[in-house]
Amino acid sequence: MDVAALAGVSIKTVSRVLNGERHVGSYTRQRVQRAIEMLDYRPNIAARSLSGARAYLIGLFFDNPSPGYVSEMQAGAMRACRRAAYHLVVEQLSGAADESLAQLDQLARTLRMDGVVLSPPVCDRADVLALLDARGVPYARIAPAAGAASGHFVWMDDAAAARAMTSRLIELGHRRIAFIRGHAGHAVSEVRYGGFREALAKAGLPLDRELVKPGDFSFRSGWEAGLALLDSPRRPSAVFASNDDMALGVMAAAHRLKLSVPEDLSVAGFDDSPGARVVWPQLTTVRQPVALMTEGAIDLLVARPAGATGGRLYPFEIVERGSTAAAAAAP
Amino acid sequence: MDVAALAGVSIKTVSRVLNGERHVGSYTRQRVQRAIEMLDYRPNIAARSLSGARAYLIGLFFDNPSPGYVSEMQAGAMRACRRAAYHLVVEQLSGAADESLAQLDQLARTLRMDGVVLSPPVCDRADVLALLDARGVPYARIAPAAGAASGHFVWMDDAAAARAMTSRLIELGHRRIAFIRGHAGHAVSEVRYGGFREALAKAGLPLDRELVKPGDFSFRSGWEAGLALLDSPRRPSAVFASNDDMALGVMAAAHRLKLSVPEDLSVAGFDDSPGARVVWPQLTTVRQPVALMTEGAIDLLVARPAGATGGRLYPFEIVERGSTAAAAAAP
DNA sequence: TTGTAAGCGTTATCAA
DNA sequence: TTGATAACGCTTACAA
């Protein structure tokens, strides 16, 4: 190590400075730092990983195909990694459950990541968590199912957000509000639906089962639910979909049936995905700070407070755009 | 290495089997393979990287913010990496030119990647290519500017695709076809525009400068170009935008101006991004096999034919959906 | 065809 | 507060 020679110290001292360890004389530290800068020295990550406790690698796993969600997660993840001089290895978990588990196991062993970020819905798979626990790989989960107490996690109050959006629609004068549920495999689906019902109850409105449709977070399921809901004399004046893709499906269905949004129908989504802004009118939705949340998840992982565990709550925001408006006078 | 003991050979022989080297007796190889399986052994990537020539790491760099494009690239990249037992490290190049260059330099030195994939527009930055050449990091470029001869590359004939789409619109009876150009920093912008003009010329149609609008690949720029084009008595009967986001902007503008697509206006895009299918009517566009192209780029990198260099051409496909139709009888 | 020994560049251990 | 030396788990060079 040339740096050591230039600074006139042993390589171990250079290592200490590099890792910010204490017990280094301030004069020595200064000399080493100057040498590092002069030589523009960068430690080799493979050597660090091989010898030490840290690999400077964070894994990001997802099995969620939504491009908007994934790319926002990554943006946050890359920011956090750069700040901490870590690198981000992304892997898509695919195939059957046992297959993706084997894939994960293999990764944990060959790569020795310092931590992994798990996005929904994989963050709620008990087998995945058990494997990571067994292999001693710390993890941080994004929006895990409630009551999940292991590892780190970051979350948003989906129930409160759904309540807020529903209340807002009621405030706008809507009484017949339809709801499209999310994919059954995602924990938030039930939570958002719960928030919707609570808001109705709080306003003294009945829950009309006819106005609740199943969905799976896809555009197509929103489109189908939209056609079913809207092609009827007793159609709702507003539709709240559990995510934006489905809300876009509803808007498309309305367009197809020659209903104007928001004049004839208000539509609200959830996520504030990129798609929310590439339609006209633009979609009213719940903004979920996915990038910030992922950034926070990695911060928790990198800080490594010795086995500590904990969660961070992030605030949502109701973003009103053109797709919602006051209900027409005659319902 | 327990595997060696179990198989009754030296660790060197195990290494040979692992790396698929020749000069290993078939019986020995079999014994070693059985031992590997029994012990479920996985080589440590850091150790391999430190000692050997390969790091089993591929970098994917982008400065293109389009979520659809990025996630399709990654899907292909992850497939190729998994197949070759490599891992994918993603980094977003951000900030000013010299800043992102420093970032890249730092990455090249700490991570010692076996290769990097460069997406547009970063794939056309001479300083980036020079740096990678200097550091000896092989690279593969996705859709680089024509005439680019260094490194590996994968591409699509953008000019032919733009010609084909334009010809198809002409075939549908459109005579007044508007074109929205792409971001000036992307090489394909000029190429696609060239294809458009060629198709007009070939059909004997004049190029009306009024019908060519600037754009930057964003929804907003398409929206603005759309308003300018459509809010006029001499509006075009079809608009061909250089990418889908801008085409969606045009559709939104049409919607806003109460023009029906495709009855009053045909709209075509380029890319077949996820957004193309979440509007109604769905967008006619050019399908670009980005995932396949990226997969191919990594294959080229991993194959490492000793400094060889080369390109692969991928086919495009015109995808006709609901946003285009025959021109109305009276123009 | 197989094995031995010497690194690769860093961190951990323990002694000074 | 510092340093010598032994790992870390592989691959490469060279020898057998």
List the helices and strands and how they pair.
Two copies of one chain form a homodimer.
Chain A: H1 2-7, H2 11-18, H3 26-39, H4 45-51, E1 57-62, H5 67-84, E2 87-92, H6 97-111, E3 115-118, H7 126-135, E4 139-142, E5 152-156, H8 158-171, E6 177-180, H9 187-202, E7 212-213, H10 219-230, E8 238-241, H11 244-256, E9 266-268, E10 285-287, H12 290-303, E11 311-314, E12 317-319
Parallel strand pairs in A: 1-2, 1-3, 3-4, 4-5, 5-11, 6-7, 6-8, 8-9
Antiparallel strand pairs in A: 10-12
Helix pairs in contact in A: 2-3, 5-12, 6-7, 8-9, 10-11
Chain A binds a DNA duplex (16 and 16 nucleotides) through helix 2 and helix 4.
Ends distance of chain A: 78 Å
**What is the N-to-C order of secondary-structure elements of chain A (H for helix, E for strand)?**
HHHHEHEHEHEEHEHEHEHEEHEE
Chains forming the largest contact: A-B, 47 and 47 residues
Major sheet attributes of chain A: 6 strands, parallel
- Note the beta-strand portion of chain A: 5-15%
Shape of chain A: elongated
Total of DSSP H or I helical runs spanning 4+ residues of chain A: 12
Helix content percent band of chain A? 40-55%
Radius of gyration of chain A, CA atoms, in whole angstroms: 25 Å
Oligomer: homodimer
Biggest β-sheet: strands ordered side by side in the sheet of chain A: 2-1-3-4-5-11
Low-confidence stretches of chain A: none
What can you tell me about this protein's structure?
The structure is a homodimer of 331-residue chains. Chain A has helices spanning 2-7, 11-18, 26-39, 45-51, 67-84, 97-111, 126-135, 158-171, 187-202, 219-230, 244-256, 290-303; strands spanning 57-62, 87-92, 115-118, 139-142, 152-156, 177-180, 212-213, 238-241, 266-268, 285-287, 311-314, 317-319. Chain A has twelve helices and twelve strands. The first copy, chain A, has 331 residues and is of the alpha/beta class. In chain A, α5 packs parallel to α12 (290-303) and α10 (219-230) packs across α11. Chain A is elongated, with a radius of gyration of 25 Å. The first copy, chain A, is 44% helix and 15% strand. In chain A, strands 2-1-3-4-5-11 form a six-stranded parallel β-sheet, with helices on one face. In chain A, strands 7-6-8-9 form a four-stranded parallel β-sheet. The interface between A and B is large, with 47 and 47 residues. The first copy, chain A, binds a DNA duplex (16 and 16 nucleotides) through α2 and α4.
